[in-house]
């Protein structure tokens, strides 16, 4: 299946560079470009987008607001945030808003292609170290009352789902979770899908945050 990608960045040169990089992949097709978040939302609304590469700092509508708006649409695509800074405050806010991962703008071309394929397949986009850093930044900035709310949220999880959620929070890949918990990768994906629904999460970082706030990490 060809992955249809929308490039969103206010710098035309960045968009041109990404289009050139992705154009070399047989599994990816760049189907549109947007110069700001508002344009991105309207293009996604028109349909036919699987992944949005989303810059954070843009005029008219920034990448955080655009991410929230895109993910609120029916059959929303995956969103990968583009940034020049590793896990800065804007990245944390974008991931908390539901972005599926982030890429540094100087990421090697092959890694960008791989990241897009992985996020479509439901694989994690963040290393355990980055996940831990992001969780710390989010949870340190929220009141203790969130802990009680998190415990209530995870009460609906089965024991198996809780085990998978903790593994997700530790940054494990689907394959690693499958090996550690002695189940198939397909079963792991099914459990993660259930976690997203039950925890009202759109990405693995949000699941990890819930586990951390509930005191399970």
UniProtKB/TrEMBL annotation:
This is DNA-binding response regulator. Residues 4-120 form the Response regulatory domain. One of its GO terms (molecular function) is DNA binding. It comes from Aeromicrobium endophyticum. GO terms for biological process: phosphorelay signal transduction system; regulation of DNA-templated transcription. It comes from the Bacteria. The modification 4-aspartylphosphate is found at residue 55. Keywords: DNA-binding, Phosphoprotein, Transcription, Transcription regulation. It holds the Pfam family GerE. SMART domains: HTH_LUXR, REC.
